Amino acid sequence: MFPKQIYKAYDVRGVYPDELNEDIAFRTGRALAEFIKKTSGKDAPTLAVGYDMRLSSPVLKTEVIKGITAQGAKALEVGLSSTPTFYFAVGYYNCDGGIQVSASHNPAQYNGFKMTRQNALAIGENTGIMEIRDLAEKNEFVAASQAGQTETGKGILSIQVKEALKQVDIQKIKPLKIVIDTANSMGGPMMEVLFAFLPCELIKLNFELDGSFPAHEADPLKDENNRQLQKAVLDNKADLGIALDGDADRVFFIDETGRTIESSIIRGILAKIYLADHPNATICYDIRPGKITEDMILQYGGKPIVTRVGHSLIKAKALEVGAVFAGESSGHYFAQGAYGFFEMPMTMILKLLVEWSAAKSVGDYVNPLRKYWQSGEINFLVSDKLAVFERLRAKYSERLKYDFDGLSFDLGDWWFNIRPSNTENKVRLNVEGTNQALVEQKTKEVSEIIEKKI
């Protein structure tokens, strides 16, 4: 049976080989080629193909290329790469689209695909991913009379790093001691090349590529995966810790005390930096609570726009409203560059290093911004998602703020968002407020309504 469930709102994710295997990779390559033919108006478009260090990625990449070229499209191999490097390659080589073989931060048994159109425009639920799914499921392809060629693009990471370095004056970066944990994933090569140009002392953790993830899961959003990094920051008396996820499109920061800096604060700082160069500009951020972001956008003269959750959705909205920067609570930070609007972790790291170099310490800069307390995302397995939303709407109807991507309520000194899972009988709750006790109390209150205890 065809695994329709692996084609999700933002990308394709499934367990290898039970859900996602060589046949599905071949079909998806063919489907993407046909989709890009239609959107580009070209009979023989060029598609960039990248892949990560997962054990199943090389064979899946090979089958994707076979599928692309079977339909007469050209495959441009960009090699072993992070997702941001792949996006950069799509734009830099002026490709008509592309596909990255990666399951991001998922455990080792997973793999997946992130697909784009020209300029690395993400293909998501409303922009083609379900059409590609349906083409792959039908499997009624007619092979091209002449197969497409395969070419190789070399040195793209070095080109990308040089482009990132143009965005700041590296003379303003102090010789900071920085510990970086790349979780045996694609951030390793990227950080190696970048930091060769910086005056900082780099202490490397888990830089060896290993798709079995021997050190820990490649998801820094879960703070338990940052314990080794937090300890290394303290042990080495470092100024800063940096963690990247499996495909290096998300980045997280640890201050000199070993404390993780909330993504909403990082997002706010970056908004401030971008607004200094682009006064009165629009900044996008996702609907999950993170009020400090809105505070800082308004403080520095920007226009805040709230978006749905998901990298493809926030990018689409940012492009629609002409945002110069966008940030997601999960650690994705996007900006408009010379080759598209997508995640740019190297640029974000560089801008933050310049900003923090002027401060006494990272913690000294960040601590005044730690004004709010967050529950973190809490998942509930429920039998009826709609009934949960009806109960919450009835309880807090007068304080409803947003009714897209779930429901968001603002109750003055605390606020929350609840979203349904796209694929499971789950709802996801995020609560934020002005102090820990209040957030804990209100999280319990809302949880009881979700679980129908009151």
Report on this model:
Helices cover 35% and strands 22% of the residues. The protein has 454 residues and is an alpha/beta fold. The chain has a six-stranded mixed sheet with strand order 1-5-4-2-3-6, with helices on both faces. Strands 16, 17, 18, 19, 20 and 21 form a six-stranded antiparallel sheet that branches. Strands 12-11-13-14-15 form a five-stranded mixed sheet, sandwiched between helices. GO terms for molecular function: intramolecular phosphotransferase activity; magnesium ion binding.
Search tags:
6-stranded antiparallel β-sheet, Alpha-D-Glucose-1,6-Bisphosphate, Chain A, domain 3, 4 domains, 454 residues, 6-stranded mixed β-sheet
What is the topology?
Blueprint: E1 12-15, H1 22-40, E2 46-51, H2 57-70, E3 74-80, H3 83-92, E4 97-101, E5 110-117, H4 129-138, E6 150-152, H5 156-165, E7 177-181, H6 187-195, E8 201-205, H7 227-235, E9 240-244, E10 251-254, H8 263-277, E11 282-286, H9 291-299, E12 303-307, H10 311-321, E13 325-327, E14 333-337, E15 340-343, H11 345-357, H12 362-366, E16 373-374, E17 378-381, H13 385-396, E18 400-402, E19 407-410, E20 414-420, E21 426-433, H14 436-450
Parallel strand pairs: 2-3, 2-4, 3-6, 7-8, 7-9, 11-12, 11-13
Antiparallel strand pairs: 1-5, 4-5, 9-10, 13-14, 14-15, 16-21, 17-21, 18-19, 19-20, 20-21
CATH homology superfamily of the largest domain: Alpha-D-Glucose-1,6-Bisphosphate, subunit A, domain 3
Question: How many angstroms does the end-to-end distance come to?
Answer: 42 Å
Number of helices: 14
Which value, in Å, is the CA radius of gyration?
Answer: 22 Å
Average pLDDT across residues?
Answer: 97
Apparent shape: globular
Portion of residues within helices: 25-40%
Our estimate of the beta-strand percent is 15-25%
CATH architecture descriptor of the largest domain: 3-Layer(aba) Sandwich
The CATH topology of the largest domain is given as: Alpha-D-Glucose-1,6-Bisphosphate, Chain A, domain 3
Number of domains: 4
Q: How many DSSP E strands?
A: 21
* Helix/strand/pairing category: alpha/beta
Oligomer: single chain
In CATH's first tier, which class of the largest domain applies? Alpha Beta
Strand order of the largest sheet: 1-5-4-2-3-6
**Biggest sheet, open or closed, and with what strands and sense?**
6 strands, mixed
